[in-house]
Specification:
With 291 residues, the chain is an alpha+beta fold. It is built from 4 helices and 17 strands. A hairpin with a 4-residue loop joins strand 14 and strand 15. The chain binds zinc ion (ZN).
């Protein structure tokens, strides 16, 4: 079998929630579902390597009749076999591999290769997830600023020039509707990089106050947000760009976002400490209130 695949063109980075597409491949999966590959899609797939933003909710419509997308993941082929999600053995962009968006459907709804279809994404859910993802990024920048005094060595800098606590300590990041939950491991490897973990639990209220203060001023600025990308294919590198008052920040990101911080009335965080087998883990819950 040879798969004559092109990388999927993705339109969600620019905010699209509707699109017309052609079915390029149907791949039955072991669990009875079918992976539907389209030439282009507005449907955000969960990324296998960094699954912070989950799949969009969507339907694929052929001649008006809808087929529900039960999951949306990345897929990849070396030309002989199609792998989906966590089964993909290659790194994104690896030579000889083509990456695509796989829309998983429980019942193929009579779809056939070559069909022209409409893809419709649940707009309200997407909007809430985009608000959550933008809030997650601005909160991470505010967290880095609040933690800046705790570094005794030069650390990698974030987009505002502060030591990148978020990038160096992040364990799991989960985008939820109108928010995110991020956990940060403050163990040996972070200490070796020069971070002072002592006293963080006693400082949580001050840290929270500093983060929420910075967030209030940034949200008040109504900064513009956009996605910059090097191309329209799934694997082309994309950046989240936010024009904060003191810096225009660029962060590599494959997700979906607001167009402006004006679309939320506030972003606030709550911090807590958990213990993971002796390693303190900082948990930051971020909540965005729609404007
Ligand atoms: Zn992101």
């Amino acid at each position: 079998m040879t798969l004559p695949l092109e990388p999927t063109t993705v339109t969600y980075p620019a905010g699209a929630v509707h699109g017309t597409a052609v079915v390029v491949h149907l791949a039955p999966q072991g669990d009875g579902s079918t992976a539907v590959l389209l030439d282009s899609t507005p449907c955000h797939p969960v990324d296998a390597a960094w699954p912070d933003q989950g799949p969009d909710r969507a339907v694929i419509r052929k001649d008006g009749s809808p087929t529900r997308v039960s999951d949306c993941v990345t897929a990849a082929t070396d030309g002989t076999q199609l792998y989906t999600g966590e089964q993909i053995p290659a790194k994104k962009g690896a030579e000889g591999w083509t990456f695509a968006v796989a829309h998983l459907v429980d019942d193929d709804g009579g779809l056939a290769e070559g069909d022209e279809v409409q893809v419709e994404v649940d707009e309200d859910y997407r909007a809430a997830i985009s608000a959550g993802h933008t809030a997650c990024h601005v909160a991470s920048l505010a967290l880095n600023q609040a933690m800046a005094h705790r570094w005794k060595k030069d650390a990698r800098a974030d987009g505002r020039g502060e030591p990148d606590f978020d990038g160096l300590a992040i364990d799991v990041s989960t985008i939820v509707p109108n928010g995110s939950v991020d956990t940060y491991r403050m163990g040996k490897s972070l200490r070796r990089k020069g971070f002072i973990t002592d006293g963080v639990p006693d400082e949580l209220a001050e840290l929270e106050g500093a983060i929420n203060g910075a967030l209030a001023s940034w949200i008040g600025s109504g900064a513009a947000v956009r996605i910059e990308r090097e191309g329209s294919a799934l694997t082309d590198v994309r950046y989240w760009v936010c024009e904060l008052p003191d810096h225009t920040v660029r962060i590599p990101c494959g997700g979906t976002h607001l167009d402006s911080l004006e679309e939320v009335s506030s972003v606030r965080v709550a911090l807590s400490i958990e213990d993971a087998s002796g390693t303190p883990v900082l948990r930051m819950e971020t909540t965005a209130a729609p404007a």
